[in-house]
Design goal:
Strand content: 15-25%
Organism: Skermanella stibiiresistens SB22
Shape: elongated
InterPro entries: HTH-type_LysR_regulators, LysR_HTH_N, LysR_subst-bd, WH-like_DNA-bd_sf, WH_DNA-bd_sf
CATH topology of the largest domain: D-Maltodextrin-Binding Protein, domain 2
Number of strands: 12
Pfam family, one: LysR_substrate
CATH class of the largest domain: Alpha Beta
GO molecular function, one term: DNA-binding transcription factor activity
Keywords: DNA-binding, Transcription, Transcription regulation
Order of helices and strands: HHHEEHEHHEHEEEHEHEHEHEEH
Helix content: 40-55%
Length: about 300
């Protein structure tokens, strides 16, 4: 059997939705005999009757009704294909899928995304937010093209470009008295701890640092939202350790103060790409802009 004709399928849909050959002819700007010929050819091609004629009305047979459903799907996909080709004709450069963490997106990415949109409006951006581990796994499945994540990652698999390092900060209620100018792991282990979940890279880094006091930490609460942690600390319910950008690049909540850590916990941001992934022009342009995270 020869391939189906999209034009004949569209004619079938018009005949059965309008209920007559004459109505379909008017909508398609064809003669009625031309519409009838297309239906006959389509029925011959599939080998079954698709339209039942009762007087001047046209009704779908069971086979016709089923084919109409497939025809609608094919028409939609054909429309999407034509739209994709139109974007290429009009200068569309492609889609780039970026993966990053919630804090990087919230506190660093806005000016980068604005520059990308202004300089390259024909690049479509798709942004996925997750932990370093989830972004790495998505990149291994080729679901993300480039990641801006907390290092380290496996450099045998990924090409890594170091971007910046920011020291994490202790955050404590202002109601605490006698807080030292530099906060140690021993001091923090004496407080009720409000920590980010350990599944996040920063969560693991904080736990490793605290374990330097002699024992693994036992947090009073664990959350996966940094803004919620800040609110709980400001309410006087405990202390935490958070990324520099989440506390130093936003107004400080009333009731919360910060202190540097001793020794510091550097949080290193890097761009990662699979070593075996070829970079097209769109990905190259996005990567060049993301290098600006060093100055954000």
């Amino acid at each position: 059997m020869r391939n189906l004709s999209l034009d004949q399928l569209a004619t079938l849909v018009e005949v059965l939705e309008g209920g007559s050959f004459s109505a379909a002819a008017r909508r398609l700007n064809l003669s009625q005999p031309a519409v009838s010929q297309q239906i006959r050819e389509l029925e011959a091609r599939v080998g079954v009757q698709l339209v039942e004629r009762l007087g001047k009305r046209a009704f779908a047979t069971h086979a016709g009704a089923e084919l109409v459903e497939h025809a609608r799907v094919l028409a939609r996909d054909a429309g999407l294909a034509l739209a994709a080709m139109r974007r290429h004709r009009e200068g569309w450069l492609g889609r780039v899928r970026i993966g990053t963490g919630a804090t990087y997106l919230a506190y660093f990415f806005t000016p980068i995304l604005r520059r990308l949109r202004d300089a390259h409006p024909n690049i479509e951006l798709e942004i996925t937010v997750g932990t370093t581990q989830s972004i790495v796994e998505s990149m291994l499945r080729n679901e993300i093209d480039i990641g801006a994540v907390t290092l380290p990652v496996d450099e045998r698999v990924f090409d890594v470009t170091y971007i910046r390092s920011d020291p994490m900060q202790a955050v404590l209620p202002t109601s605490y008295e006698g807080v030292p100018d530099m906060v140690t792991a021993e001091y923090m282990m004496g407080q009720p701890l409000i920590l980010e979940y350990a599944k996040a890279t920063t969560g693991r880094m904080v736990r490793e640092w605290l374990t330097g006091a002699g024992a693994p930490p036992r947090p009073a609460m664990e959350l996966d939202m940094i803004e919620a942690i800040k609110s709980i600390v400001a309410a006087g319910l405990g202390a935490s350790i958070l990324p520099f950008e989440s506390v130093m690049r936003r107004p400080m909540p009333e009731g919360m103060m910060t202190r540097p850590l001793s020794p510091p916990i550097p949080r290193r941001l890097g761009l990662i790409q699979r070593r075996d992934k070829e970079a097209d022009r769109a990905l190259g342009l996005v990567r060049a802009e993301l290098l600006g995270l060093a100055d954000a």
